[in-house]
Design brief:
Bound molecules: adenosine-5'-diphosphate, magnesium ion
Radius of gyration: 32 Å
Mean pLDDT: 92
Number of helices: 36
Shape: elongated
Low-confidence stretches: 876-880
Strand content: 15-25%
Length: about 900
Amino acid sequence: MPKYVYDFTEGNKDLKDLLGGKGANLAEMTNLGLPVPPGFTITTDACRRFLEDGGLPEGLDEEISRHLTALEGRMGRRLGQADDPLLVSVRSGAKFSMPGMMETVLNIGLNDQSVHGLVKQAGGNERFAWDSYRRLIQMFGKTVQGIDGELFDEALEELKHGRDDLELEAADFQRLVETYKGIVREQTGQDFPADPHDQMRMAVMAVFESWNAPRAILYRRQERIPADLGTAVNVCSMVFGNCGMDSGTGVAFTRDPGSGHQGVYGDYLQNAQGEDVVAGIRNTMPLQDLERLDKPVYDELMKIMETLENHYRDLCDIEFTVERGKLWMLQTRVGKRTAGAAFRIAVQLADQGLIDLDEAVTRVSGAQLAQLMFPRFDGDAKTSKITTGMNASPGAAVGKAVFSSERAVELAAAGEDVILVRRETNPDDLAGMIAAQGVLTSRGGKTSHAAVVARGMGKTCVCGAEELEVSTKERRFTAPGGVVVSEGDVISIDGSSGAVYLGEVPVVPSPVVEYFEGATDQDDELVRAVHRIMTHADATRRLKVRANADNAEDAARARRFGAEGIGLCRTEHMFLGDRRQLVEDLVLASSKEERDQALAALEPLQKADFVEIFQAMAGLPVTIRLIDPPLHEFLPDYTELSVKVALAGDRAEEKDRRVLAAVKRLHEQNPMLGLRGVRLGLVIPGLFAMQVRAIAEAAKAVEGARAEIMIPLVGAVQELEYVKDEAQRILAEVGVEALVGTMIEVPRAALTAGQIAEAAEFFSFGTNDLTQMTWGFSRDDVEAAFFSKYLELGVFGVSPFESLDRDGVGRLVRIAAEEGRATRPDLKLGICGEHGGDPDSIHFCHQAGLDYVSCSPFRIPVARLEAGRAVLTSTDSDTR
Ligand code: ADP
Ligand code: MG
Ligand code: MG
């Protein structure tokens, strides 16, 4: 039978899969000799079994009992013992942190008898004991029994009657216990469970079940956390921050998660327990003030934070409690941080010698880099700032103010940019936070729910803007000076400075983009950090990075961003605009002469386009794809034209009639699977020849030009041979050399890659089409029609158009790469679908042995970084 329960002394930080992050790190701290209240962890394995079987796995009850008995022995008191009770917390903790998503119940073991024992234990402190008891019923009722938390909150508010919670007395809490018990009875039809063992068992099961709560599912989908991991449960002996002003509870970071700077960052709340500090019940004090309150505890905490940072070699965040002058550590983990802080911290740690540059590169991600490339607010713009809150998560967000999660989702679905404004957020606001451009709260610090979750999502957030009076009911807030912002009014929030502006503030490019664009001044600390990381990633990576670019401007930008060539130059854009007429002439041509005339008119235009691109790329390879889309895409819309012709009746122009006939003739049921790509080349005489000639002439005209001619949509080597022969004849005529290769985007091409490589000098995987055809998904239809359902059902965790499907599409890529190279060992391999800029897909390309990835110019820095990371990390899940 598997071992389902681990004492804190048995685990360590590397057992996150099994013990969850919280459990693994509690064990790690225990073994470091830090003051952690004793306890044990029930594994994720047990959770998975529970969720599958719908009940606790066999033997778990006994195993828990054994560990509980050991814990009781150690603590010298039994769970819920009437005269001297041991109390425990039952805490969720999954492999990846999911702030506030799952459940925790404190003070388990209290009932009408043991509450008196607790009074005695606490030297007669009645207030503390009854406060703890009412908290138990409240948390248990809400999370284990599923009672609406508002009911408890309302009862508490009523009892307070405007008083601060510190003003409440023992008798108040004792009354509250009775009220709460009444709520439980009313809502569940049963009494609050008095048996401490029942309490614990029920709480354990509730934590397991919370893994599949709707908000947890939504969060996992957003964060791409696999749905089948399960959560561990930690049973931890209680320590109490709510037994007087010499006690309290707090949260802290070892560095500023916004900037990465070293210092003391945290919040502390006296005489409080658990979530009080993040829930905003009272204003917290900055952690620095603890030095004044209790210097020995403060000094010890500082020492522990240093120990943790040196041990984890990274920014850590911690949760701690002080019980009558004694410090207890309740949690630590490598802390979430903003994208900018990630780069700065990685370089700072490397400079401190805690990590090397290889590791520094693995500590940042392409997603973070992409975030740093977002524009910011224009510092010179005329703005009207209405207040400043805390800079919780950077970025510049502009949108209409909305005051509920539902409204945010609604307006966002209608295409509006919105800013979600709340007094404070809670896990039920998650959908609205995802939908919004940014989040603004009037309460809570940098460790509040809004701040933590927004940072995790990379969403702009300003929190704790205390000057704002937010009225959710009236859907508006007021700012100093009588400014009123109602739902729908546009506001701008700056997550880097905390500023809140009325109206739309213009945005400017980020300094990181300006650095990539070639700006030389590097006095920005962030830019210097990005430079160090990128330099090392470039030195490390094996994959080359090319750009998808169709014009000289994009090509030039791509080069500045570090592109080592163009992997995909589409030629169809060169058929648009005022050249449409020429394409129309081509389609309508009724004789060879007419057709040749149309082609002859197009050729110099194409040549001029290519010349510019070759010039921009200055000798770097340029892969040009011959025309791919169906020709009717260049003709007028069928319905519009038929209406026009019908309305004109007899007076309809001859030409319109001919175009209409052509549109009709070319109409296809499934254009994606119709007359396009290489098929056009075989069916329309002279079309590909014209393009090849234009490429050849352009290459001849530009010194050092390196053309690679790419044939789209090939499924059989015969198609390619036909086109290639013609192309090589033309190249010879013009007197230039160029590689001729093909896209691999039809499954048959991948499966016959060994044959195709006889003719192809390179392969470029067109993974957009390859994904469409492998899955049989019409991309333009399925994404809107049912992908959200598929994601919900977990058919896939992420759209296969976004991130390459390794098992299916990836398998075809591997087959083609292997069999193609078996035929032609020096076969050049690249990828030019949208996946070329997706971190996880880039790692796949590295592993599959491709030579390069090609992506849009703006993704190039991301691709360079991820190509470097791919060398340094062996697991596949690390790009999250
Ligand atoms: P989360 O995963 O939401 O952070 P936790 O399991 O960390 O939930 O519990 C929330 C808070 O409850 C902790 O920050 C801590 O303050 C408090 N807490 C949990 N266990 C104990 C304990 N054994 N003694 C005292 N406080 C506890
Ligand atoms: Mg916690
Ligand atoms: Mg294609």
